[in-house]
């Protein structure tokens, strides 16, 4: 990972626990690794338990602290178990990154399968609600903490052919604003990160031609990296962003205004 030297192995989050959903891949994995390097004790939660374990192995091999748990964020029992694991392992839940998300294949709305719409809403929107619900209940017992929800460029504008995903991510942004204000006096900050197109392994699999096509659509001419998004999450979890709550943080190379 290409991090500025001054931040490598910093103590920014020493002794602070964090849950990260979807931590087995892409942005969630990069965020898990980065926060651990900065001292956080990480609960890596993913519906793909093997993927979560691989992230934990990467963290512990680098001297960091992390545990893995299988968690489907659309299931309230799984989500509660994730929060309980953070509290039982590390003593409290201090920070949270609600990152797990899926998209449906591009489709005209009248041809979008009802099950595909339902699943995207269940994981991306209901999952974020369930995580916030369990995390905030735990944080209120120990004085609060910062939370980041992973929205999307599709939470701020239209994503062509992606009606369900656009609706779910607009919902995540709406939840973020509502919850931020509800808990603003109780030391819980909630912000949303809105990435544009980020070159994860999943996207890389589409090949060089598609990457070139996507890059062309971004004003900077470049796709984002998971590590760049992780840096924004790190900032929003840190005290450096103490004034920010309820914000939509565009992390999209200018795509919002293209
Ligand atoms: P990814 O597919 O690389 O990783 C997502 C992870 O979430 C996977 O490990 C997967 O197993 C896990 N997951 C899926 N369903 C789950 C569930 N029900 N419960 C728990 N875990 C589950 O994805 P990514 O590209 O890193 O995306 C992460 C987040 O960022 C998502 O919310 C996505 O919508 C958002 N995002 C991504 C991009 C992008 O270009 N990659 C752009 C905007 C927003």
UniProtKB/TrEMBL annotation:
Domain Ketoreductase: 16-206
This protein's UniProt keywords: NAD, Oxidoreductase
Stored SUPFAM superfamilies: NAD(P)-binding Rossmann-fold domains
Coiled-coil ranges per UniProt: none
InterPro entries: KR_dom (IPR057326), NAD(P)-bd_dom_sf (IPR036291), Sc_DH/Rdtase_CS (IPR020904), SDR_fam (IPR002347)
One Pfam match: adh_short_C2
Single GO term (MF): oxidoreductase activity
Family under the similarity heading: Belongs to the short-chain dehydrogenases/reductases (SDR) family.
Name the UniProt record assigns to this protein: SDR family oxidoreductase
Organism: Janibacter limosus
The organism's taxonomic lineage, starting at the top: Bacteria, Bacillati, Actinomycetota, Actinomycetes, Micrococcales
């Amino acid at each position: 990972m290409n991090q500025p030297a001054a931040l490598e192995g910093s103590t920014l989050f020493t002794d602070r626990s964090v849950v990260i959903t979807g931590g087995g891949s892409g942005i969630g994995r990069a965020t898990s690794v980065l926060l651990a390097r900065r001292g956080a004790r990480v609960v890596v939660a993913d519906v793909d338990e093997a993927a979560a374990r691989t992230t934990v192995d990467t963290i512990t091999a680098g001297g960091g602290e992390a545990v893995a748990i299988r968690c489907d964020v659309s299931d309230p029992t799984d989500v509660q178990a994730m929060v309980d694991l953070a509290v039982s392992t590390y003593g409290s839940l201090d920070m949270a990154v609600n990152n797990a998300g899926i998209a449906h294949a591009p489709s005209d709305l009248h041809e979008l399968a009802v099950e595909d719409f339902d699943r995207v809403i269940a994981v991306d929107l209901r999952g974020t609600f369930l995580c916030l619900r369990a995390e905030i209940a735990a944080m209120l017992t120990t004085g609060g903490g910062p939370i980041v929800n992973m929205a999307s460029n599709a939470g701020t504008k239209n994503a062509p052919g992606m009606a369900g995903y656009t609706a779910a991510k607009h919902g995540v942004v709406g939840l973020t604003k509502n919850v931020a204000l509800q808990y603003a006096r109780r030391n819980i900050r909630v912000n949303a990160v809105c990435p544009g197109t980020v070159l994860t392994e999943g996207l890389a699999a589409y090949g060089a031609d598609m990457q070139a096509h996507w890059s062309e659509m971004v004003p900077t001419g470049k796709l984002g990296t998971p590590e760049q998004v992780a840096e924004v999450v790190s900032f929003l979890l840190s005290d450096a962003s103490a004034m920010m709550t309820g914000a939509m943080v565009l992390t999209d190379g200018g795509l919002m205004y293209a």
